[in-house]
Design brief:
The complex is a heterodimer of chains A (151) and B (72).
Chain A (H helix, E strand, L loop, with lengths): L3 H5 L3 H23 L7 H26 L1 H7 L1 H11 L1 E4 L2 E4 H17 L5 H26 L5
Antiparallel strand pairs in A: 1-2
Helix pairs in contact in A: 3-5, 3-6, 3-7, 4-5, 6-7
Chain B lengths: L1 H15 L5 H15 L7 H15 L14
Helix pairs in contact in B: 1-2, 1-3
Classes of the chains: A mainly alpha (151), B mainly alpha (72).
Chain lengths: 151, 72
């Protein structure tokens, strides 16, 4: 016994699905190519991405904590401690900055040195990995905070 | 590059007052700094202004440690 598919071939819906899947695959690859432009140094681009992401996330954490410090101090003391560690003043480049901003700034200093040929790609990769670990911690906290009901 | 550098004072002024989206402005200035430093277009004055804008931003309430907040 023959089904309608074996007689007429796959239905048009299958073709549509295949086209959508192919477009999705192509867009995935093109998006991947776009993340590092031709001629850009991937190490520098990764550093820029880490700096930008870290500044965003660290600022988000301190702003969220600041919105209701008393609540977080009581209900999520570890978050408040983390935010306070980001606010801790440290000296960098002759000025006093909060530790969170100083961490981003120090990666930026290494990036500038690398672009100027005064630091190796290993130096920059190391600095970025340290910032990435801070960013991972901050991202985890931002997820927890976003899902915690608060006044 | 020149147009970007011409816009720098305005961008730094916005960073100082920590406008919403300040993180993107900092990232933009950092990117400009990295590309302009090797060519010498990034001057010591710009470096100082950038640092000062970061310091000013860090004095916002959100970045102030508990110990430095005024007692209620």
């Amino acid at each position: 016994m023959k089904t309608s598919e074996s007689i007429h071939g796959p239905s048009p819906a299958i073709y549509t699905l295949l086209v959508v899947l192919m477009l999705a695959t192509f867009s995935f690859f093109f998006e991947g190519c776009n993340s590092v432009a031709v001629g850009s140094d991937p190490v520098v681009v990764r550093a820029e991405q880490a700096e930008s992401g870290a500044t965003n996330t660290l600022n988000l954490i301190v702003t969220l904590d600041d919105a209701n410090r008393g609540f977080w101090m009581t209900n999520a003391p570890a978050l408040h401690t983390f935010a306070e560690s980001l606010r801790k003043p440290v000296q960098i480049d002759g000025v006093t900055l909060p530790a969170g901003l100083a961490a981003v700034r120090s990666v930026d200093d290494v990036r500038v040195a690398y672009v100027a040929g005064k630091a190796t790609s290993n130096d920059l990769a190391m600095a970025v990995s340290v910032l990435q670990s801070l960013l991972s911690q901050a991202s985890a906290w931002s997820t927890i905070v976003s899902n915690t009901p608060n006044p | 590059m020149n147009a970007a550098i011409a816009a720098l004072p305005t961008i730094l002024a916005l960073i100082q007052v920590a406008v919403p989206g300040v993180e993107s402005l900092i990232a933009w200035v950092a990117s400009l700094r990295a590309s302009a430093t090797p060519t010498g277009a990034w001057t010591a004055q710009m470096e100082s202004d950038f640092l000062n804008s970061l310091v000013a931003m860090s004095k916002s309430h959100a970045w102030t440690p508990d110990a430095a907040l005024p007692k209620a």
